[in-house]
Design a protein that fits this description.
CATH topology of chain B: Thiol Ester Dehydrase, Chain A
CATH class of chain A: Mainly Alpha
Number of strands of chain B: 6
Strand content of chain B: 35-45%
Largest sheet of chain A: none
CATH class of chain B: Alpha Beta
CATH architecture of chain A: Orthogonal Bundle
Structural class of chain B: alpha+beta
Helix content of chain A: 55-70%
Shape of chain B: globular
Structural class of chain A: mainly alpha
Number of domains of chain B: 1
Number of helices of chain B: 3
Helix content of chain B: 10-25%
Largest sheet of chain B: 6 strands, antiparallel
Radius of gyration of chain A: 12 Å
Oligomer: heterodimer
Number of strands of chain A: 0
Amino acid sequence: MSSTFETVAGIISETCDIPREKITPASHAIDDLGIDSLAFLDIAFAVDKAFGIKLPLEQWTQEVNEGKAPAEQYFVLENLCARIDGLVAAKSA
Amino acid sequence: MRLEYFEMIDKVMLFDADGKRLVAAARVPRNSPVFEGHFPGHPLVPGVLLTETMAQASGYLILGLNGLTQMPFLMTVDKARFRTFVEPDADLVIEATISIVGSGYVATKAKISIEGKPICDAELRFRLMPFPADLAVLMRARTAAIGLEPEAVS
């Protein structure tokens, strides 16, 4: 998870011009870092390329919008990184 | 092309769904209000309209592949290169290919050539969104007008 977080934090910092030191595993991408949906698509693109996966962003957004899942489940960075690790593991399984 | 109406693509020459590739043709008009300003006495197609042309070819490719289920809106333009000038009456060949299909976005590579000579190229990304009211009808009419037959999506 730690190396995944470092990669994701670097992507967020570069993509959204957010100082790296402000980004922690407990950061909420939307509430704490102020990342909007368009910027998050940029992040998803960079994450997809970096990890060779496809973040199911549309599904996550739909689940959050319909109240089926709390936003924290996907958009707090430690949770996001755990999901990225899961997708990477599923790809190589 | 009707530059002032942003109708940049005249005809789809090839739509290869398996290869995720589209080739289109467009003739630059002899006269356009655009040329009155860009530049007086020296008409050149602005780079921003060449970018729009590459974006539209990419957009039609995406629409062809998704069967007009979602509308692609231009989101980013990367690595744009404009290699030579484009003048009135030029016959453009525009090619777009899909590079990444993500969740909620699609990335393409696009280029324009004239008689095989590279004119410009760029990497583009599009956000996929539900069609705003009535736009699907208009886009379906436009795809038919340029000879694009979208994939049937079940």
